[in-house]
Amino acid sequence: MNSRRWSRIPGFPFSRRRARGLSGVIVVLVFLLFWATRNRPGGPQGTGWGPPAEGTARPWSRDGGRSTAVRRVLVTRVPDGDTIALSGGERVRYLGIDAPETGEPFCTEAREENSRLVLDKEVDLRPGGPEGSDAYGRTLAVAYVREDPGKEPVCVSTELLRKGLAAVYIKGPDSVDPSLLAELLRAQDIAISNQAGFWGYRLARARSGGQKLVATRYRIHRSGCRELGGTAPRPVVSLQDELRKGKSFCRSCRPLGNRAP
How far is CA 172 from the centre of its chain? Predict the structure, then answer.
């Protein structure tokens, strides 16, 4: 039944013109609802990044067609400064950071601080990038813990970064949510400015000129690092400027660490 025939029905309130106007209003309302949903803060296309709200499960990305979301877990073991083990045996690697390895300065301090923050506690794991796990089968996630029931959860990674017990480490610009990366870099910059944790000796080594550092697109290397291959690295003029760009220390040559190249 078209609008002309409807308009002939006694008591029917809509003319053809009114029906068209109503259709236009509905289209506008649907568009506004879609736009608001796609651009809400903290949503899939928003720019917010922070602790998950109590009782929420907000998806960030899809892994194999399955939405990944925030989940609460119990930490039963802390192997080192950037890894935890859960009650079911699952291992989790903190996305976007790298703590000192065994035998390096502040390795023990990093593990102890990580333990203090999360051991035998429930934490919220939130995905922060498109990859769900690393090459060792560990889940990649960002952990939040409530140190005080009356306060907001704190990000474990930023706490470790602020104390100079971890450094930012990313595989590339698409491996970590941009808002999360900005948060991690701010925390690291605070530690560098305060020469907290291992930054005191790392910056002293950098100033001494004992190691010649070079930079590629994403990494800072010792000049003779085997990972450089056929690339054309450039000398590092300001270490802090390179770190602020999101570049990370090479894991092979461990520049400014205590391992031989």
Answer: 12
